[in-house]
Design goal:
Blueprint lengths: L3 E5 L10 E4 L2 E4 L7 E3 L35 H6 L3 E2 L7 E8 L5 E8 L4 E5 L16
Antiparallel strand pairs: 1-2, 2-3, 3-4, 5-6, 6-7, 7-8
The structure holds zinc ion.
């Protein structure tokens, strides 16, 4: 539906106020003029589709053991929601979750069993939460 905005001066026939301006077109009612202009509608700006969430290892749901060799006791592990993989066959050894400014779990810092670190998720939005607590070396 066109929405009437105002009557205006018609540049085609010089009428003072026979031009009816709508939000998407204008039309002149002057006899013999018939000016009609369809306004180019600016395309609706659709907000960028959110980036698909990369799948993250989820936060631990069970009580995690301490990480003795890193001097992290169980309460610290709980506090930072660290996931500890006890299975020696698991590639992943420990997961340190990262959180964004809203406290959402947004990324994981993953320690592989070969002492290699990997990062999973959105590093940009992740705070350095806990980083000092878990030095990389
Ligand atoms: Zn006109």
């Amino acid at each position: 539906m066109s929405k009437f905005i105002r009557h205006d001066h018609c540049p085609s026939c010089g009428s003072h106020d026979n031009l009816a301006v709508y939000d998407d077109h204008e039309y002149c009612f002057s006899e013999g003029c018939g000016r009609y202009v369809n306004y180019e509608r600016s395309p609706t700006i659709t907000s960028e589709s959110p980036k698909p969430k990369k799948s993250l290892y989820s936060l631990p749901t069970t009580t995690q053991p301490s990480i003795r060799h890193r001097n992290l006791d169980a309460s610290t592990v709980q506090k930072y929601k660290v996931t500890v993989f006890d299975d020696p066959d698991s590639e992943v050894e420990v997961i340190f979750p990262r959180f964004d400014n809203e406290g959402q779990h947004s990324a994981n810092q993953i320690r592989m069993r070969g002492k290699e670190f990997r990062f999973q998720g959105d590093s940009a939005s992740s705070t350095l939460f806990g980083q000092n607590y878990f030095p990389l070396s």
